[in-house]
Prior knowledge:
The chain is mainly alpha-helical. It contains seven helices and no strands. The N and C termini lie far apart (72 Å).
Amino acid sequence: MQGRARTQSSGLRKRANAYDMRLGGRISLLRQARGISQVELARKLGVTPQQVQKYERGTNRVSAVRLYEIALTLDVRIQYFFDDLGESAVTHDDAAKVSAEDFLWTLAKIKDEKMRWRVLRLIAALVPDED
Length: 131
């Protein structure tokens, strides 16, 4: 009977899809922008580092409660994970795009003010003129 129950319950599981991959990519990107390792995030969430890795790859789905805990831990509104999620081209590559919030947060971590300005000038120099 136990073997049958396991088979039935595993048959009810849904496979992760492109949305799960995108969500995982956003978790990974934000975690890295915050300078937090998978091990540290796992410890704060009370899960294994392997579980965090599965969330970030999109191989395991993130429950609503776990996503809320991740948002609290990474100091971001839960809406961050859903911004632009409904757009038609949902791919894992899209999750690699750095948001302005991530960029500003990372830039603010540069303690040397002169270095911060150098980084900003470098970025400004890379942007083509809009003539």
